[in-house]
Input
Amino acid sequence: MIGKTLGPYQVVAKLGVGGMGEVYKARDTRLDRTVAIKVLPADVADDPDLRARFEREARAIAALDHPHICAIYDIGEADQVRFLVMQCLEGDTLAARLSKGPLPLDQVCRYASEIADALDKAHRAGITHRDVKPANIMLTKAGATLLDFGLAKLRGAAAPISMSGMTRMATATPSTAHGTILGTVPYMAPEQVEGKEADARSDIWALGTVIYEMATGTRPFCGETPASVIGAILKDEPAPLSALQPLSPASLDHIVALCLAKDPDERWQSAGDVKRELTWAITGGQGAAQIASGANRRSGYLRRVIPIASVTLLVGIAVVVTWLLTRPSPTADVIRTSVLAPPGTILTPDSAAVAISPDGKMVAFVVGDPQSVTELWVRDLESLTAHRLDGTEGAQLPFWSPDSTRVGFFTRVGAGQKAQLKTVAATGGRVDVICDLRESYGRGASWNGSNVIVFAPGNGPLYRVSAKGGEPTPVTTLDAARAQSGHRFPVFLPDGDHFLYAALPRHADGTFDIFAAALSGGTSTLIGAMESAPVFAEPGWLFYLRKGVLAAQFFDVHALRVTGDPVPLADEPVSILNTEQSFTAGPATSVSPSGALAYFSSPPTNTTATWIDAAGTTLGTVKLPVGPFSGVRISPDGTRAVFVRSNSVTNASLWLVDFAHPGAVLLASGGGRNESPVWSPDGTRVVFASDRDGPQNLFVKNLADASPEEPRYQSPVEFKYPVAWSGDWIVFTAVDPNSSADLWLLPASSPLGDTRPAPYLRTPRKDYLGATSPNGLWMAYVSSDTLGDQLWVQSFPKLGRGQQIATFSVQTHWWSSDSGRLVFMGTDKLLWRADVAPGATLTVSPPTRAGQLPSNLVAVDMMPDGSRFLALIPERTGTGSVTIVHNWRAALEKKR
Output
C-alpha cells in the first residue's frame, strides 16, 4: 500500500492495525494535510455484513464533533479498496504508555475525565462504543483521544450482523474476544460476556476498568485464559484502588467502584455523571453535591445511594482535601536527604544493610565500631538523631515488619556467637530469637502480613518460619538443571503469598536469575535476569541495579512479569556489595510504599597496599594505580604480587607489581571479571578465573613473554576459581548445586580439552579456600557448616582422615615455607597459628593467638617466610551515607 494513491490521498507509511482495518499515514493532496487512512481488508470487503459495519463506523464517527474523539474526514473507494480518512494523531496509545507502568494520579483523573466527556458526547448521539480499552485511546499533547468506534452500534439503526460474519470477524481480529462476542474480554461488562444487549452503561464499565488500570498498572479482572477472565468479571470483586495505589483518594475508589457494579442499574447511569465526579475529585470538592444527584439514574441506584449520600459527601470532602494537601505530586520537587553514621561508627558499605520502614517514617541501618563490631541503629526521619538497639551486636541485613513496629535481622557466626534470625522492637527492648540458622550467615528475609518470615539461611533454598519463632521449613527447591547453589533476598508481593528471590550462581554478564514463588506451593516462575535482587514497590515497580545504576521497571503482580523498559532513578552509582560479598546478589535499595526509598551512597574509594607485621604495625606501602583493589597474591619468592582491581560489579582486571621496581603492569583485562590469581610453584605463570567468554573459566598467563593468556579449563559450571598450584596440580573450587562447593584437581600441564579434572573433596558441606603445603603433602581448606567456616587439614593429593584445626570462622590461611606451621585469620581479623609436626602422620597443635590485623582490610596475603603481611586498606574520602529519596514516584516520572 505504501506509495499507492487512493483518490486524492497518497499513502506514505503504515501506522498499524486499528479495529478491523489496517491503518496508514497518507497525504491529502487537495488540502495539503496529513491524514490517517483505515483500509478494509479485501477478504472482509466482500462480506456485506462486515462492509456494512465498516461504513457504520464511518457514519458513527462523522456524526460526532468533539476534541477528544478522533475526527473522520472522508469515506471512499478506489481500485476496489474501501477506506476511511481520519484525523492523524501524534502520540502513543494508552496501552503503550501502560506498558511502562501506572500513570500519576493527576494524569489518571485528567485522561479519565476527557474519555468520559467523549463517551458522553457519543452516548447523547445514540452511539455506544462497545470497545473502550487502552489500545483505542491515543495520548497526545492535547490529552486523550478516543479511537475506533469499530464496534459502535447506532441506536435503532444497527442492522444485525450474521453469525458467519461474526465468526470471521473474531478470526480476523484477534484483539477482540473469541467467538461471537464483540469487544475485548478484560474490558467487557458482565452483560456483554453473557451475550446480552450492551448500552451506554457497558461503556461506563469499560471506562472504570481503564481508570483502574491507569491508576494501578494492572487490570481489575485477570486470568490465564479468556474463559477465566470472563469468570472473574462475572463473580469476582477487584481489590480497591487504595490497596494497590495507596495515594489514590477515596473519591476515585468510589467512582471506579460504581463503574464496575455487576448490575448495570447499580452503575453510574451516564458518562456525564462520571465526568462530573472526576471533576469534583480534581478540584477538591467543587460540584460535590452532585454525588447524590442525577434524576436520570435508575431507581435501584437511587435506593442504594440516597441513604448514604450525606455521609459519603462529608467523608469524601475530608479525604479528598487531605489527599490534595498531602499527596506527593509528580510535579513536586524530589527531596534527597542523607543519614550519616553516628559519631565513632562507620556505616556498613552495603545497601542490604539499610532498610526503610513500610510507613516511610524510620530507617534502620547497620554500623560498625572501630573494633568492627556491628550493631543495629534506627533513626526517625523526623528526628536529627538515631538510637542504638541494644542487644543487636553482630547484626546484619535488617528488614521490617509490615506494621513498621519491629525490625528483623541476622547475626553471623563469630567467636562465641551463633548465626541466628532475630527481631527487636524499633523503639528498643528485648531481642527475640526466631530460629538458629543452618549455615554461618543469612542472606535476606521478608515479613508478610500473616506473620510469616521467608529467609535465606546462607546457601541452599529459602525457608519459612513464624515471626513468633519455631522450626523453619524449606519453601523453595534448588534447580539442579540450572546449577543453582542458593536462593537469596526474598521479597513478598502484596498478596502476602507470592514472593520474588534471586538465584545463584551469577551469570557471566553479572546478572542473577530472578524467580517468583508462592508459600501456597507450585513451581517457581522465571521473571528475568538482573544485576541485583529486586525490591518491590506498590503498585507494581521493581527496583534493581542496571549497569551499576539504580533503575525501576514496571512489574505486573498478576501476570508475574516485567513490562516496559527500565528507567534509571539515581544518577550516581549505588554501592550494594562490599568486596567480600561480590556474589551475594544483594538488593540495591530499600523502598517504602509511602514514597521514600533508601540506599547506601559509597564515597569514592582508593586502595593502599600496606606492609604490616602480625601486630598490625605499618612497615611501608606498595604503590598501586588509583582505584579500588580487592585481592592480592604474593609470588612464591616474595618479590612480586598480582593485584585484583575491581572496576565494577561485572569487571575486574589483574595488575602485576615488582616490589623492587615501582609501577604496576596490566596483566589481564580481557573483559568481564578476571580474578582469583594463583602463582605456579616456580613463579613463572599465573592461573586465574575469568568470565569473559560466558561461564567463569580458568586461564593461564605465562609471565616470561608477552603472549596472551591461554584458556586451560572450560565447563558449564558458572563458578570456579583457582585456590592453589602444587606440583602437577591446579586446585580449584567449583560451585555445585547439591553440595554448595567442592575442591577439584586439574593437571597443570594438560592443554585445553585434553584432560578432565578429578574431584578431590566432595562433601555435603561447602569446601573451599584450599591451600597446599609447600612440601605437597597436605591441603588446608575451609569447610562451612552450621558452626561456621572452619579450618581443616587433609592429606594431599590422596584423601586420608581430615583433622579440624579451628572451631571458629576462618577467613583466610597460609602455610609457612617449611610446611611446619599454619597461620590463619578469623572474621574478626585476629591471627592464629598451629604447628604441624613433620612426618607421614598428620599432627597439629592446638591453635594459639598470633596477632591482630587491621579490621578494615579487604584482602591480605602473607610473605612466604611469614615475616610480614601485605594488606589492602580502602581509603574513602568519607564514611559514606544513607541516601533517602522522598517522593520517588515523582523522581521516576521525571526520568521517563
